[in-house]
Amino acid sequence: xxxxxxxxxxxxxxxxxxxxxxxxxxxxxxxxxxxxxxxxxxxxxxxxxxxxxxxxxxxxxxxxxxxxxxxxxxxxxxxxxxxxxxxxxxxxxxxxxxxxxxxxxxxxxxxxxxxxxxxxxxxxxxxxxxxxxxxxxxxxxxxxxxxxxxxxxxxxxxxxxxxxxxxxxxxxxxxxxxxxxxxxxxxxxxxxxxxxxxxxxxxxxxxxxxxxxxxxxxxxxxxxxxxxxxxxxxxxxxxxxxxxxxxxxxxxxxxxxxxxxxxxxxxxxxxxxxxxxxxxxxxxxxxxxxxxxxxxxxxxxxxxxx
Length: 306
What we know:
Elements: H1 2-9, H2 21-40, E1 56-66, E2 69-78, H3 98-106, H4 112-123, H5 129-147, E3 154-169, E4 171-183, E5 189-196, H6 203-215, E6 220-226, H7 232-239, E7 244-247, H8 249-257, H9 265-276, H10 281-295, H11 300-305
Parallel strand pairs: 3-6, 6-7
Antiparallel strand pairs: 1-2, 3-4, 4-5
C-alpha cells in the first residue's frame, strides 16, 4: 500500500509538495545568516558584537515563489535597517534555478571550494571573496546539521536515484548527485540524504553511504528501489541483509528503449509488461522467454539488460 501511495503521489523533488521545499528553506536561511554575519562583522551571539553600533534585530517572514513551490524564509534584520539581503532581495517574490542550487549546496562530499565557487556564481562579481567565504561557512554549517540529523529506526521503502547537476570549481562539470528518498511508516515522504559522486561509484561507495544512514539510526529497510547502480545490492546485503533490492521498472524500461528503434518502443513496452506484472517468478520467466524469442535477434542488448 505504501509503495502504491508513493508511486501515485510521486517521489518528485520539485513542484508543489515537492521534497526540496524544506531543504530550500534551510539553504536560503543559512545563506542569509552568512550575509548578515558579513554585514555586521561578527557571528551570532559573539561578544565581539557588544557595543558595535549595530546588531541583529530578529527576523521577518517572507514567502518566495520558486521552482520547488512556495517557500517561507525568515529574513534577518538589523537595528540600523542597513542590511540589504542579496540572495532574496527586498521586494523580490520569485527565485528561479533553485532546485539545482539546493542540490548542489546540500550534497555531502563537496569541498569548501566547490560550494564557494557555486555561491560566487549565484551572488555575482560584486560580492567579495571574503563575503562568499563567510556565506559558504554558514551554508556548510546549516547543511551539516541537516546531513547528520537522526533518522527513523525503520523505513518500509527507500528510493535511490541519480540526478546530474553542474558543479563549479574552476570549471563547470556535470556530476551525479545521489538522492536517497524514503517512504515513512506513516506513508509520508522524506529525503534522508544527498551525496555527490564522480560517476565511478561502486560497492565501497554505497557501503559508506548506507553505513552512514545506519549510524544515524536506520536499523532496517524493507525494500530498496534503485536503477541497477553498480555495487549497490552488495552494499545493501552487508548493511541490511534482509532488505529486498528492487530494480526500478520505470528506469529499466527507459534503459531498454535506448537499444531500440523509436518505431518499436510501443511494441517493446507492450511485450515487456507481462514480464514485470506476472503473478509468479515462473510465469515471469515464461513471459521473458517469449519476449527473448520474439525480440532477441533484433535487440539482444535488451534481453541481456533484463
